[in-house]
Amino acid sequence: MAEVVHAAGALLWRDAPDHGPEFALIHRPRYDDWSFPKGKVDRGEHVLRAAVREIEEETGIVARLGHRLPTSTYPVGERTKRVDYWAARPVAASAFTPNDEVDEVVWLPAAAAEARLSYGHDVDLLHEFLRGPALTSPLVIVRHASAGEKHAWRDADELRPLDAAGRGEAAVLAGLLHSFGPLRVISSATARCLETVLPYARLTRTPVATDAAFTVGETGPEQAVEALLSLTGVPAIVCTHGEIVSDLITGLCRELGEKVPDDPSLAKAEFWVAHLAGDSLTALERHAP
C-alpha cells in the first residue's frame, strides 16, 4: 500500500463588506502554485494543533477553527496525501515575512480565488464552503478525564479527583479546545469534571459554571438534552460524564434532524464538537487528546 502523508490545513476567510468573504491563498515558489495553507502533521502532534500551527507558519495569522470541511486525498508521487481541513477565521496577525516555502499571501474574493487556485481539490473545497453556512458556533461536549477507579474511592463520589493521567489529559485538552476560540465553560458539579476544564479556563481566563443538568445522579436524559439545546448559538464547552454523553449527542442530532453517529459515546477525555448555524448542525467531529 502507498504511504499516506497526513496533513492539516484551513480555508482561511474574513468578511469583506463590499464583495462578501475573502480567502487567503499562499504562493509556494518551489512549486509555483497557489493553494490554501496546510502542512504535514508532525509525529505525535494532534491534527487540531497542526492546522492552527500551519496557518500561522505560512501566513503569519493566528486563527481559530470553525466547522470541519471535507478531507482531501490525492496522489503525490508514489505516496497518498490526506489533508484534513477546517474553515478558519483570523484573530490576530503579525507582519508576513516571505520565505523559501511561502513567498506571498493574498486575500481574494471567491471568484478571483477560484481562478487563482492551482488544484481542483482546492476549488472543490472552496465550493463546499460557499454552499454554507460560513459562520458557525462550536458546542463542545467533553467527557471528563481519567479519575482512577470508582470502586477504590472511599469518599463522596462528587469529590473524586483526576488521577495523574487525567491531569495530563486535562492539560492537553486546554490547548486543543483553544483551537476553537473563546468558549463559555459549563461543567458537571463534580471534582473530576471541574478539574478537566480548569486548565482551559485558566488559559482563557474564563469562569466555570456548574449545572446539575450535566451532573451524574442529578439529571435525566430529557433534562440534560434540554439544557444542552439552550446553549445552541453560544460557543460553549460542556464537561460531563460517560453516562450522559450518548444522551446529549443523540438528543442533539435528533432535535436538529441529523443522523445519530453509530457510536455517540466517548472515552475519557475525548470530546465531540458540534458546529451549529441557527437550528442546523453543519458538522460533527470527535477527537481524543
TrEMBL record:
EC number(s) per entry: 3.6.-.-
Gene3D superfamilies per record: Nucleoside Triphosphate Pyrophosphohydrolase, Phosphoglycerate mutase-like
Record carries keyword Membrane: no
Segments forming domain Nudix hydrolase: 3-130
Alphabetical UniProt keywords: Hydrolase
Entry GO MF terms: hydrolase activity
Pfam families: His_Phos_1, NUDIX
Superkingdom: Bacteria
Record PANTHER family: BIS(5'-NUCLEOSYL)-TETRAPHOSPHATASE [ASYMMETRICAL], DIADENOSINE 5,5-P1,P4-TETRAPHOSPHATE PYROPHOSPHOHYDROLASE MUTT
Family affiliation: Belongs to the Nudix hydrolase family.
The protein's name in its UniProt record: NUDIX hydrolase
